[in-house]
Design brief:
The chain is an alpha/beta fold. The chain has a single domain, classed as NAD(P)-binding Rossmann-like Domain (Rossmann fold, 3-Layer(aba) Sandwich). The chain is 47% helix and 13% strand. It has 8 helices and 7 strands, in the order βαβαβαβαβαβααβα. The protein has a 7-stranded parallel β-sheet, with helices on both faces. β2, α2 and β3 form a beta-alpha-beta unit. The chain is globular, with a radius of gyration of 18 Å. Bound molecules: nicotinamide-adenine-dinucleotide. Nicotinamide-adenine-dinucleotide (NAD) binds next to α1.
């Protein structure tokens, strides 16, 4: 996709951070925008901000983990704009620590939002795009954590690896069907967003009834180090600029911090050399 004016973008997790940065960029490109998010107040604030800047924008309160919500999102997007050209599967949460230190509801919540959210959206939006048979693009937000293994939350890590796998396979599945839909997977490093405060959007159904294991001091130290790096991270606006460049150039892998690619390389080399996983250099 080379031109964006008047095209329609659907963005999940659009009320904050990277999603909000993508929405602002869509507005600059004079796109029609569908904002989807679970946090109503922030969602309406994002809509007002974009409207004030002159954008055509609707906001749909959506829990991407809920299939019926995602169905309704697709329906309302089509009702409003009759077309969907660009889909950003971006909503995501982080919780838990090592698997045994995470509660059952931590596991369910992170997997339901980060993985099932992407699955529901692909199931609802790809058939619409196939039927349109016009150039479309899907950007799935993974993370550098989707190509490496070292993160405070093992659950976050597994979902981000899953999103890379889903995206690569989606790319193949669409290619062999000669679809006009391109795919990218966004693998950012640290971005200055509200992700470390993801708990604000944990629905009551996922509240922790009991703690299965206690986080250790080591886990807390690692989380603090990540918190600092996110606080000093890249602005979402710069991530959005990188994403739009990748859409125009039809790049599949979208990196924001090329200096971190050495971690991917080291992991791949260890795998091919039959070596055990090595701790990456950094805040251990
Ligand atoms: N911030 C980083 O350093 C970083 C790095 C790599 C990847 N990511 C990924 O970027 C994506 C966006 O996160 P962010 O960093 O902008 O964080 P953020 O918390 O600022 O934004 C995430 C948005 O997703 C929404 N959301 C949460 N649960 C939802 C649900 N069930 N349904 C719909 N919306 C929901 C939140 O309300 C929020 O508006 C996530 O997938 C995250 O994993 C972030």
């Amino acid at each position: 996709m080379k031109k964006f004016e008047n095209k329609v973008a659907v963005i999940t997790g659009a009320a904050s951070g990277i999603g909000r940065g993508l929405a602002q960029r869509c507005a600059q490109e004079k796109m029609k925008i569908v904002l989807a998010d679970i946090e109503e107040k922030a969602l309406l604030a994002a809509q007002s901000e974009l409207k004030a800047a002159g954008a055509q924008v609707i906001a749909i309160l959506t829990d991407v983990a809920n299939h019926e919500n995602v169905k309704a999102l697709a329906r309302e997007a089509i009702n409003a704009y009759q077309h969907i050209d660009l889909l950003f599967n971006n909503a995501g949460v982080a919780a838990g620590a090592a698997i045994w230190e995470s509660t059952f509801n931590d596991c369910k919540w992170v997997i339901d939002v980060n993985l099932w959210g992407v699955i529901h959206c692909i199931r609802e939006f790809v058939p619409i795009m196939m039927e349109q048979n016009t150039p479309c693009h899907i950007v799935n937000t993974s993370s550098i954590a989707g190509l490496t293994t070292y993160h405070p939350s093992a659950l976050y890590q597994l979902t981000k690896h899953g999103i890379v796998a889903i995206s690569e396979q989606l790319h193949h599945d669409l290619a062999i069907r000669r679809a006009k839909i391109k795919v990218s997977v966004l693998c950012p490093g640290f971005v200055k967003t509200n992700i470390m405060d993801a708990e604000r959007n944990r629905p009551a159904a996922y509240f922790n009834q009991q703690i299965n294991g206690q986080k250790t001091a080591d886990a807390d130290d690692m989380e603090d180090a990540f918190y600092q790096m996110i606080k000093n991270g890249m602005p979402p606006k710069a991530v959005a600029a990188r994403v739009f460049q990748a859409i125009v150039e039809e790049n599949f892998y979208v990196f924001t911090h090329p200096e971190l690619n050495i971690l991917i390389q080291a992991r791949m080399e260890d795998i091919l050399a039959g070596l055990n996983p090595a701790l990456p250099p950094g805040p251990q």
